[in-house]
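Consider this one:
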Amino acid sequence: MVERARGVRVEIEPWGDGDLQLLRRLNAPEMTEHVGGPESEEQVLARHERYLRIGGMFRVVLPEGEPVGGVGYWERTWRGETVYETGWGVLPPFQRRGIAAAAVTAVVERVKAERKHRYLHAFPSVGNPPSNALCRKLGFSLLGECDFEYPPGSTMRCNDWRLDLAAG
């Protein structure tokens, strides 16, 4: 799927065996400061295996073929309802170019086409202004702050953003 944002064209391609190195790059301290810091190599390998299994994870690729991030969606039970959750990350040299917006827009189009769940949620840390701004820009509604267990065993304060997939 190809999306454009501010003149930037990106593609999202299914996460594959060869994307482990990209995941390692996304595990850098500057990429993980709002989600508890970098994971161990063992945790990265386990995450890579999960990404391969869940089917809703994608690498974000520029037209020239360079992978610059990851984006995805998965099912979660949230407040008694099955919803989709989304998450993303774009490598620092490629941030602030509209790439994340285009990638998340591509995910939104995919989940809308599935017509399976009404809502897509994002849970960025309250201390992550760029991710919260992206949610606002893409039309997610801020439902408020919440405590969220992430990484497992730790509680982080997040904003609960929700996009109504049935809305126009």
User: Anything to note?
Assistant: Strands lie at 2-5, 8-14, 57-61, 67-78, 81-90, 119-122, 141-149, 155-164. The radius of gyration is 15 Å. The chain has five helices and eight strands.
